[in-house]
Amino acid sequence: MSTLNRTIGILGGGQLGRMFLQESYNYNARVRVLDPAGDAPCAPIAPEFVQGSFNDYQTVLDFGRACDIVTIEFEHVNTEALHQLEKEGKKVYPQPHILELIKDKGAQKAFYTKHGIPTGPYFLAENADEVRQKTTQLPVFQKLRKGGYDGYGVKPLRVAADLDSAFDEPSLVEELVDFEKELSVIVARNEKGETAVYPAVEMVFHPVANMVEFLASPAQIPADTEKKAQEIARQVIEALGMVGILAVEMFLTKTGEIWVNEVAPRPHNSGHQTIEGNYCSQYEMHFRSIMNLPLGCTDIVQPSVMVNLLGDPAHSGPAVYEGLEEVMQIPGVYVHLYGKTHTKPYRKMGHVTILDADAARALEKAKKVKATLRVVA
């Protein structure tokens, strides 16, 4: 059996799976997709789309048994079924025990501490009373240990009155980091243990939705800081022993330290620009890594800026893209729509990557795109 003649199963049929499908088609890959939504972004383009819950043990088990390799585009899946698939000889990447670790933000932090990976001050709490008892200074950020993603399950506690509305569930509480920049480094590892690390990117988050609004590649940081960030990302994936692609989100503090914030064991929002901006996209790199193929070149083709295309906060309903033709006239603009028919406030509906030989000019174009292109109903 050739290395390419294997069936890949993806748990999750959203935009990440859709972009993975688009890249994997270049290798004539056989891909199956499982998602509970019949109108998921992958549904119209997947060679085989199975509608079903990725949280249901038997559904995941049956789906995975028809695949050679099972991967994810979303962490919150049934890992018990994935463990069983491993026992039956299926390749599951990222490995189920790593998914279980990463799904628990408290366990993540403990892992960093154990392996000497720099991270910010934190404590764990079982309930809201414990948060109030243990909090000695404000502001802090409270994150649910399980179930949070894309800004959900995160609550800033800035003043004493905010403690009254703390999550009454097991959570991670972090001191507010006085950071200079928020960075992300994408790193990949195959079954042979080979690794490939992308240059660091710089992220700017939406003040309300708490999702990446702008992303600049490369990050405007000194060469020694870049090297350190890449070394830390490699340290994390090697300590995990993970196969696949991993996004490592970091804080660059005002004193020049780099602290790992959290990781995502899959293609990530902070790597979308790699489709046009780097020689090998994060989606092709994920394909290469889980197939145990040679890893691709991570070098930057041109400086780029990525803009998340979010649903307008005042609109819900069938999606309409205002300003699309205007931004398509700008040189170096690449629009990616995710195939979602309905918009709602701050829903991820697409992204736009802007390339330019001059990083400052790319940013100016990105600001124009942001001001022009809107998703309304």
Walk me through the structure.
The protein has 377 residues and is of the alpha+beta class. Helices cover 27% and strands 29% of the residues. It has 3 domains: 7-92, 3-Layer(aba) Sandwich (Rossmann fold), CATH 3.40.50; 121-175, ATP-grasp fold, A domain (Dna Ligase, domain 1, 2-Layer Sandwich); 179-376, ATP-grasp fold, B domain (D-amino Acid Aminotransferase, Chain A, domain 1), CATH 3.30.470.20. Helix 3 links the parallel strand 4 and strand 5 (91-92). The chain starts with 6 loop residues before the first strand and ends with a strand. The model has no long low-confidence stretch (mean pLDDT 95).
In short:
The protein has 377 residues and is of the alpha+beta class. It has eleven helices and 22 strands.
Q: Which term fits the overall shape?
A: globular
Q: What's the name of the CATH homologous superfamily of the largest domain?
A: ATP-grasp fold, B domain
Portion in helices: 25-40%
> Largest sheet at a glance?
9 strands, antiparallel
CATH class of the largest domain: Alpha Beta
CATH domain topology of the largest domain = D-amino Acid Aminotransferase, Chain A, domain 1
| Mean pLDDT score | 95
Number of distinct beta strands: 22
What does the radius of gyration come to? Answer: 20 Å
Judged by helices, strands and strand pairing, the structural class is: alpha+beta
Output the keywords.
377 residues; alpha+beta; Rossmann fold; Dna Ligase, domain 1; D-amino Acid Aminotransferase, Chain A, domain 1; 3 domains; 9-stranded antiparallel beta sheet; 5-stranded parallel beta sheet; 11 helices; 22 strands
